[in-house]
Amino acid sequence: MRDYELSELAVVIPSRNRQKFLLRSITFWSKTNAVIYIVDGSKKAISTKKILNFSENIKYYHSRKNLSERMTFIASIIKEPFSCLVGDDEFLIPSSLKSCINYLKKNEDYVSCIGRSVAFGFNKKNKKIMGCLSYPEMESLNLSQKEPSERLKYHFKNYTPSQIFSVCKSKEWKIGMESLRVEFGFFAQMEMQFELTLSYSGKSLVIPELMLLRSLENDIIIDTEPGLTSGVGLDKFWRNKNFSIEKEKFLFHMIEILKKVSTQNHKKIKKDIVDGIVCFCEFHDEYLIRTKQIPKKRIFDPLKKLLPIKFKNFIKKLIRPEKVKGLNLSLDKTLDDLSKSSVRINREELDEIVLMIRKFHEG
Fold first, then answer.
1. Is the pLDDT of residue 56 over 80?
2. Checking phi first, is residue 127 left (phi over 0); if not, alpha (psi -120 to 50) or beta?
3. d(CA 161, CA 212)
4. Confidence at residue 4, expressed as pLDDT on a 0 to 100 scale
5. pLDDT over 60 at 59, yes or no
6. Which of 28, 119, 248, 318 is exposed most, by the fewest CB atoms within 10 A?
7. DSSP 9-33
């Protein structure tokens, strides 16, 4: 995989309490010349003995601070001209990363570029790697609107997270992560503020190449720190009067962030943010109706809030036996279907990743 020149790219990997998967990721990225920044929030750091054996392109930082603090720290030290984010249990295809870098170099008004995505998981019962198409809405997506306000409204009206895992020009990527400097009480704060910032900063494109392999091997990290609590999404945060003071602080903060990428005045930027979030709320309502996920009040919800997270996860495993959620096809069949829609897939690189996943689970 060192055939692809990626020394201009910073790959940022946040992690916490999943060091077995993180070490798999380190092994993968050691075969490239991309610069890898790891921000590990685990209770204990990886042993010094293992760290000394890391490849020279691996930069490992251990900190027990909140995710937002760890990400703003990394954003402050990156020197490479391009940056991207990836999960500690997930993979990016190096050749597609190079394609995105090349596109951004040739197109000054674009700040973000990403390829297509599939999700994968390992079925322990039949020892098969399963898969499904991830983010199908990304097909042919091109946020090419000239005006920042129009890009933001279009993106949030047709929302899919097309930028948080994309290759970005580092100037805009850093500003997007700088938005986390102030924490707010809604879920997926990093994703939502980053998507808002990048779509306002410049144009973005999804290229027809497989780039991202999203892992369903682990449960999503839910915690009590701001931005990782699952009870309140951006739509509830925006509409609930109990958050009115925090909402004003959010608007003030995001206006200051967007001033770094825009020449518009305070009033105009505020209007653009409000219009964009209103579009997201409308999208969220339509999504709930379309997928029949209209929330209902449940009598046990107040009690659930009092339970420790570890106990909740234990109960979930008792009630719902282990299965590969949402993955009904083999990864091979998923990839065959994707390639039929004219998406390029680097089979050599992919085979290397599949072999690594299989060895990881079969020991």
1. yes
2. left
3. 12
4. 73
5. yes
6. 318
7. EEEEEEESS-HHHHHHHHHHHTTS-
